[in-house]
């Protein structure tokens, strides 16, 4: 009887210029040769077990420390993971939201190793690729891919465990979920009506933003991107990052900032558009942020 096919793979491709990647250079500068060894160990573990992701928690940190050896104590491993997230080796949004290590690059390589599989199911919340982009997902692989939700597995409505409180708790959870879903839907509706159809990765990122700022502020950022003819998630994200750095959490904060700016620049120095939220200087800074300058 043949053994069931595991989710992971027996090998993975590694570019010959891997160590010339800026992200890898940053890691090497901070963590040295031991960091490079640990990165290789983590990638082997990731591809070998789940194929495109690894769940990260305290226990996993200890297991990696024990498996890697060579002086990779748990504290070093934990700090190294944060370094990987900071420099983009692993996707920051998915890590913060789900404590999962993955990246678009890892997934892009993994889907190209599915030729021998009849099908493969991804967790929708972890998926970072655009299935409509053949550079991300080749057409030959597209019909093999299915999706499931991690939320269905990890957050079921547990009615039988607490029978004395089950009805109230269940109803409260349902009502709370409906409110949250409606808020997310408003953001997604604004994004898809004005920008483009949101990929799974974009949906995840917009949902994460909703945990930091108000829904109305996200929609305002979308409107701002449209008004500047910068219809991309990258520009919206740059706006929200800029506002977050300035401590803005809702529309009122933005309006106060705009009014203060106008008061300080009454003598012909005001470069705000009459009905917009960004000054010309802020637009220039956003462009620099997006371009990495």
Description:
With 293 residues, the protein is mostly helical. The protein has helices at residues 22-49, 58-68, 74-87, 92-98, 104-111, 139-142, 150-154, 166-194, 200-210, 215-227, 233-245, 251-264, 280-291; strands at residues 54-55, 100-101, 120-123, 145-148. It has two domains: 18-152, no CATH class; 166-291, DnaD domain-like (Arc Repressor Mutant, subunit A, Orthogonal Bundle), CATH 1.10.10.630. Strands 1-2 form a two-stranded antiparallel ribbon. The protein has a two-stranded parallel sheet with strand order 3-4. Strand 3, helix 6 and strand 4 form a beta-alpha-beta unit. Helix 10 crosses helix 11 (233-245) and helix 11 (233-245) crosses helix 13. It is globular.
Calculate the mean pLDDT score and round it. 79
Instruction: Specify the number of helices.
Output: 13
Q: Which radius of gyration do the C-alpha atoms yield?
A: 22 Å
Give the class from helix and strand content and strand pairing: mainly alpha
What overall geometry do the principal axes of the alpha carbons give? globular
Tell me roughly what share of residues is in helical segments: 55-70%
Any idea how many domains? 2
Low-confidence stretches: 154-171, 173-181
Strand line-up of the largest beta sheet: 1-2
């Amino acid at each position: 009887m043949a053994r069931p096919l595991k989710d992971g793979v027996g090998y993975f491709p590694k570019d010959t210029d891997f160590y010339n990647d800026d992200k890898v250079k940053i890691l090497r500068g901070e963590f040295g040769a031991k960091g490079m060894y640990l990165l290789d160990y983590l990638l082997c573990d990731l591809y070998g077990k789940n194929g495109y992701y690894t769940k990260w928690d305290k226990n996993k940190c200890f297991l990696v420390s024990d498996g890697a050896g060579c002086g990779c104590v748990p504290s070093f491993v934990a700090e190294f993971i944060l370094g990987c997230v900071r420099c983009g080796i692993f996707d920051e949004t998915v890590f913060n939201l789900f404590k999962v290590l993955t990246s678009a690059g890892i997934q892009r390589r993994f889907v190209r190793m599915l030729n021998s599989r009849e099908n493969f199911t991804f967790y929708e919340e972890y998926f970072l690729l655009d299935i409509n982009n053949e550079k991300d997902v080749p057409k030959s692989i597209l019909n093999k891919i299915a999706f499931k939700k991690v939320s269905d597995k990890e957050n079921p409505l547990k009615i039988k465990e607490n029978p004395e409180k089950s009805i109230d708790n269940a109803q409260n959870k349902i009502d709370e979920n409906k409110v949250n879903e409606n808020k997310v839907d408003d953001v997604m509706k604004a994004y898809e009506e004005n920008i483009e159809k949101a990929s799974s990765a974009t949906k995840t990122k917009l949902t994460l933003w909703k945990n930091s700022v108000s829904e109305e502020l996200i929609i305002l950022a979308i409107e701002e991107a449209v008004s500047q003819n910068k219809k991309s998630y990258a520009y919206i994200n740059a706006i929200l990052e800029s506002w977050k750095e300035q401590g803005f959490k809702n529309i009122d904060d933005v309006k106060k900032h705009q009014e203060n700016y106008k008061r300080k620049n009454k003598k012909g120095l005001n470069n705000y558009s009459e009905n917009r939220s960004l000054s010309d200087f802020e637009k220039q800074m956003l462009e620099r942020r997006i371009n990495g300058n």
